[in-house]
Design goal:
alpha+beta, Translation Initiation Factor IF3, 2 domains, four-stranded antiparallel sheet
């Protein structure tokens, strides 16, 4: 038997009451949470986890220097010597190479004739330090001058340490927050905000190196410091009895 009009209206009224009551409960719960947050103490913390890692990427920069009475002669000499240098580099596996600044400038002193000086650099990077230092020595024997030599930490090494350092920093931050809250007779309610930085390297001074025309440069890689910093805002509340 189909329900009467009165019964239909009653069902609708009951549904509306349940819906309205649920909204009130949800609103009360939300308002209660907001009220608890407003009464909470906000704690700002920052923790950094750090560890030393061995530098594993060597970067060597050398240059070809030439001088002459005219620009064309200087440029031709630079091009010829750099081509020969690159041919040597390409015979050494595992070495990445790129050419750097190329410049040719005119110089004149007083009323004397014009003189031209030019140079071009070549940059070598690789993880096989012995092979790279030996190659640098060969290029020096060919007349290239060493401009700089330095060890760096490779991106792969930094990335490998990042996750572990992040976990260490968060764990240290959590311990410190719990300790601070306890000394204030409070408890950690929750994290309100968390910012995790990327791994960074703090390089120590570049190692010195010795170089002679007939021998390979000598260098020691040393260590670099990798660190991750975590910043957070936490809410502290009174301990429940």
């Amino acid at each position: 038997m189909a329900p009467s009009g009165r019964e239909c209206r009653l069902v609708k009224l009951v549904g509306l009451a349940l819906l309205f009551g649920g909204s009130l409960l949800g609103g009360a719960s939300s308002a209660g949470a907001q009220d608890a947050d407003q009464r909470a103490t906000v704690l700002h913390l920052s923790e950094t986890a750090e560890r030393p890692v061995k530098r594993d990427l060597l970067r060597v920069e050398l240059r070809v220097d030439e001088s002459g009475a005219d620009a064309r002669t200087v440029q031709s000499a630079i091009n010829r010597r750099m081509t020969a240098a690159l041919d040597r580099v390409h015979q050494t596996p595992g070495v990445r190479v790129e050419t750097g600044l190329y410049s040719v400038n005119q110089e004149r002193q007083g009323n004397g004739p014009a003189h031209w000086r030019g140079s071009q650099s070549v940059i070598l990077t690789g993880k096989d330090a012995d092979a790279l230092l030996k190659l640098a020595g060969v290029l020096q024997s060919d007349g290239l001058a060493a401009s700089s030599l330095r060890y760096q930490t490779s991106p792969e090494t930094v990335q490998a340490a990042q996750d572990e350092l992040t976990a260490e920093a968060i764990a240290a931050l959590d311990r410190r927050a719990t300790s601070i809250a306890g000394s204030m007779h409070l408890t950690v309610l929750r994290y309100r905000d968390l910012h995790v930085g990327n791994a960074e390297t703090a390089d120590r001074p570049v190692p010195r190196f010795a170089a002679m025309a007939a021998s390979s440069p000598v260098a020691e890689s040393g260590e670099s410091s990798v660190r991750v910093t975590v910043d957070a805002e936490l809410l502290l509340a009174r301990s429940q009895p």
